[in-house]
Amino acid sequence: MHRKLDYDWLLFDLDGTLTDPFEGITRSVEYALNAFGIEVEDRRVLAPFIGPPLVESLTERYGFTMEDAVAAVAKYREYFAVKGLYENELFEGIPELLSDCRKAGYKISMATSKPTHYARIIAEHFDIARYFDAIHGSSLDGTRITKSSVVAEAVAEEHLDPTRALMIGDRRHDVEGAGEHGIRTVGVLYGYGSREEHEAAGAAYIVNDLDELRELLICE
């Protein structure tokens, strides 16, 4: 088993790329919105919250002030830390893909907008933490929340050569955040982003499913 592409490091997004967190995230967002008197009839309208930083989504989609958005994130975490964290599931084939990427010689990091604390718990819960050389996420205190800042931490702490690293994610924030540091991205369409979103953001590669991602990354 060998690397098919000329990269050393793979940076995987979490939500919508490794796991499908629809139930946990939308229930947590609903809980936070309810605290501000906002009722949601169909949680499917909250799917766009999967991936981007929460503060950004709250201000853009519901017109929250920064102060209210920060307070809403705190409410979100009241639910998420207890229940939402586990209302989640791995996409089928992810453990096998990660294992084979390691066998092919890649080093693997996680780069997620989810707080590092929660990302580690999720990785341990699904028994995939062992495949990662490092897990990088946002900070609980709000000092590091954008995908760009998360990628910056990964580059600095892992001493990555951006030209030798590849981001894998399902939203434009992955493409744009990695791109700010000279890292190219594989946009995956089995998550919550569209082909148009990835093309507009400048993804270097776009794959429909895990089979295509595996085919892109690995030579048997």
What does this structure look like?
The longest helix has 15 residues, at 66-80. Strand 8, helix 8 (195-201) and strand 9 form a beta-alpha-beta unit. The chain is α/β, with parallel strands linked by helices and 220 residues long. The relative contact order is 0.19. The N and C termini lie close together (5 Å). The model has no long low-confidence stretch (mean pLDDT 96). It is built from nine helices and ten strands. The strands form three sheets. A six-stranded parallel beta sheet has the order 6-5-2-7-8-9, sandwiched between helices. It folds into two domains: 2-21 and 88-219, Rossmann fold, CATH 3.40.50.1000; 22-86, DNA polymerase, domain 1, CATH 1.10.150.
